[in-house]
Amino acid sequence: MIGAHERAQRAFAAYVREPLGQPLPEGIEPRRMKIYAELVYNAFEGFVAGGFPVLKSLLAPERWQALVRDFVAAHECRTPFFLQIGEEFLAFLQAGAAQRHALPGFALELAHYEWVELALDVSEQEVDAPGIDRAGALESGVPVLSALAWPLSYAWPVHRICAAFQPEACDAQPNCLVVYRNRADAVKFLETNPATLRLLGLVRDERLTGRELAARLAVELGQPGVAAIEGAALDTLERLREMDIVAGVRAVATGR
């Protein structure tokens, strides 16, 4: 059975999350409750706005406020950490809020792209890891993808969307991006192509040497044994290492 104290707590929490739709808790001055409700909303709005600045800039202020108030009132957050509010807001949009609020067709992918930037910015992981040789030979070593490099493919050109460019239809070809944080802790993105994303997918397996990766990619592209394709793949790996997307190489495991 719920006691009086817990009922009071629930009434208080319900009101500060949705002051326009919940009754005022008994025994608390309305002016104080208004202050509490504004503090809660402002805290959430600040974190969401900081994590999704482009999405916010595309919505009229009243639409943005309605979206955030719906998030505060209706979404059940699974984490107590403020740095993870962005992930919760993304889950809220993906669970149907984007449709309820009639957001643009690109909104979900844009929100995901903005969340990735935030997640990489606050991540405690590092580019370097034990056992990685930053300057090792890519051809004979096993290239390693940085833990702070995320290969991504979007139907919409999320990296170009802004107030002046809001497409009404997705692109015919995928938008291939690598969003990453380099050793200088700067979050950047690389616009690339499906072949490079596939190469990074092979790198992620951490089993093949650079030469083997290049040969595998050439086979998948239908041009096995073509030296130009394999050479281009190795050159791409080198450029990716210079950008800190490829962290370095591991030694080839014995007995594989």
Write the layout of secondary structure elements.
Blueprint: H1 4-17, H2 30-51, H3 53-58, H4 61-74, H5 85-100, H6 107-122, E1 142-145, E2 149-154, E3 175-181, E4 187-192, H7 194-204, H8 210-220, H9 227-242, E5 246-250
Antiparallel strand pairs: 1-5, 2-3, 3-4
Any descriptors?
single chain, 256 residues, mainly alpha, DNA polymerase, domain 1, Outer Surface Protein A, domain 3, 3-stranded antiparallel β-sheet, two-stranded antiparallel sheet, 9 helices, elongated
Give a quick rundown of the structure.
The protein has nine helices and five strands.
Task: Describe what this molecule looks like in 3D.
Helix 5 (85-100) runs antiparallel to helix 6. The chain starts with a helix and ends in a 6-residue tail after the last strand. The protein folds into two domains: 4-103, DNA polymerase, domain 1, CATH 1.10.150; 142-250, Outer Surface Protein A, domain 3. The mean pLDDT is 90. The chain has nine helices and five strands, in the order H-H-H-H-H-H-E-E-E-E-H-H-H-E. The chain is elongated. The protein has a three-stranded antiparallel β-sheet with strand order 2-3-4, sandwiched between helices. The protein has a two-stranded antiparallel ribbon with strand order 1-5. A hairpin with a 5-residue loop joins strand 3 and strand 4 (187-192). The protein is 49% helix and 11% strand. The protein has 256 residues and is mainly α.
